[in-house]
Write a structure and sequence with these properties.
- The chain is of the alpha/beta class and 466 residues long.
- The protein folds into three domains: 122 residues, Orthogonal Bundle (N-utilizing Substance Protein B Homolog, Chain A), CATH 1.10.940; 44 residues; 209 residues, Rossmann fold (3-Layer(aba) Sandwich), CATH 3.40.50.150.
- Helices cover 46% and strands 13% of the residues.
- It has 19 helices and twelve strands.
- The strands form two sheets. Strands 5, 6, 7, 8, 9, 10, 11 and 12 form an eight-stranded mixed sheet that branches. A four-stranded antiparallel sheet has the order 2-3-1-4.
- Strand 2 and strand 3 form a beta hairpin.
């Protein structure tokens, strides 16, 4: 792609682009490039960029919204760009394409005035890509600005009567295979599938957990949080940096989705016969559920000496677990190759690795990275981990099988296969241990949903070893 330079006639060429002081858009653009070039994780990189560039308040919010919103919507935006360009998006220079996507998001999904969305994007392209590229971006964005998002979707998406999955994939910016999986998980209902996909594209609220015995919800509320709906330990942070909350900075509270808190609490509420002093978290990293289990186990109203063993395969994640817990014994270990005697634990948590389709709203680029070809390997690992957990728990004890995915292949299929192989395990009605929440499914398992509960899409099965 040609860049501006000196005129061949010897006259003065185009003036070099003037630097622009738009750190919010520059930061959003740099995050998009990092995701594309080195597979960066947006939710990990963005806080670092904001700190490095000292962005806060409105500028930090704008940078986050532009970057995350563009990543969520790029499936839809690429179809619109294709309709407004003489080249398909995949043939455009990636730095130019990311900048145009950023402009399209501002035009179609934000309150930024059209002239400002086009002008700031053209300036960004001129500075970061080149003068020639900025002219191309200007032409594309002016075409995009001629219609609303709804009008563009009506043009570029397949007819819903002929291809309902394809229409939802374009209209809600999800890969087709994910749309199919989520449709199956909600029972095939088109309208509910659309509502679920739309919820994936909403910015999730920040949920805090007050670890019992170490912090209280009242303390979080006094720090500016708002009351939560379900979990007795949760509060919502409407704005600001969670790290600025004193209890979070001191490790007495943390950021944890409300569904994650509730499936953890459900495990602790199941009555067990005999002792209740040995708990195991089989896949503990990065430590959210382990931190809550450790706090509940040591808060004082359980049998004395209740302790948690937290196992994590990866060392760096095991270090995060250590930071999230106080009394737990944290080890680096493979949950499928037990480092403990069988049949000794009273409660076991299996938060199994999965596709993460229930947390797409928190990880904006994840939907484009997930590969359905990984499902068979994940399924084998999930079955192996659940089998290991059932061997680790004693008769009368209970196992919680959890995934942050509603995909049927990772939830009911895994538990169903396990139950068919073992006559010493029974499924408990998980809904009975979370009476404060409605609409969790038909049982005996339960499923949280972004569009129903405002939480991540968390699945829970409770299994007792007879």
């Amino acid at each position: 792609m040609r860049r501006g330079g000196a005129s061949r006639t010897g006259g003065r060429g185009p003036r070099p682009p003037r630097p622009i002081r738009d750190e919010a858009r520059n930061t959003a653009y740099d995050l998009l490039r990092a995701v594309d070039e080195r597979d960066a994780y947006a939710n990990l990189l963005m806080p670092a960029l904001l700190r490095e560039r000292r962005l806060s308040g409105r500028d930090a919010g704008l940078a986050t919204e532009l970057a995350y919103g563009t990543l969520r919507g790029l499936g839809t935006y690429d179809e619109i760009i294709a309709a407004c360009s003489d080249r398909p998006p995949e043939d455009l220079d990636p730095p130019l394409l990311d900048a145009i996507r950023l402009g399209v998001h501002q035009l179609l999904k934000t309150r930024v005035p059209p002239h400002a969305a086009v002008g700031t994007t053209v300036d960004l392209v001129r500075l970061r890509v080149g003068v020639g590229a900025s002219k191309y971006a200007n032409a594309v964005l002016r075409k995009v600005a001629s219609r609303t998002l709804e009008e563009w979707v009506a043009i570029v998406a397949p007819d819903p009567d002929e291809d309902s999955v394809g229409h939802l994939a374009v209209a809600h910016s999800h890969p087709r295979w994910i749309v199919t999986a989520l449709r199956d998980a909600v029972g095939g209902d088109f309208d509910e599938t659309a509502a679920l996909l739309a919820a994936d594209n909403e910015r999730p609220r920040v949920t805090l957990v007050a670890r019992p015995g170490r912090a209280s919800v009242e303390e979080l509320l006094a720090s500016g949080a708002e009351p939560a709906v379900y979990s007795p330990y949760a509060a919502y942070l409407p704005e600001g940096d969670p790290g600025a909350v004193r209890a979070v900075a001191e490790g007495r509270a943390a950021v944890q989705d409300e569904a994650s808190q509730l499936v953890t609490l459900a495990l602790t509420r199941v009555p067990v016969t005999g002792g209740d002093s040995r708990w195991l978290d089989l896949c503990a990293g990065p430590g959210g559920k382990a931190g809550l289990l450790d706090a509940v186990a040591t808060r004082g109203d359980l049998p004395g000496g209740t302790r948690l063993l937290a196992a994590e395969l990866q060392y760096h994640r095991a270090r995060l677990v250590r930071q999230a817990t106080r009394r737990a014994a944290v080890i680096t270990a493979d949950g499928t190759v037990p480092a403990w005697r069988p049949g000794v634990f009273d409660r076991v948590m299996v938060d199994a690795p999965c596709t993460g389709l229930g947390a797409l709203r928190r990880r904006p680029e994840a939907r484009w990275r997930r590969d359905p070809r990984a499902l068979p390997d994940l399924g084998r690992l999930q079955r192996d981990l659940l089998a290991s957990a059932l061997e680790a728990v004693r008769p009368g004890g209970v196992v919680a099988y959890v995934t942050c995915s509603p995909h049927l292949a990772e939830t009911v299929a895994v538990v169903g296969d396990t139950l068919r192989r073992r006559d010493d395990v029974e499924a408990l009605d998980a809904r009975a241990y979370l009476p404060e929440v409605e609409n969790l499914g038909e049982g005996p398992y339960l499923q949280f949903w972004p569009h129903r509960h405002g939480t991540d899409g968390m699945f829970l099965a409770l299994l007792r070893r007879r």
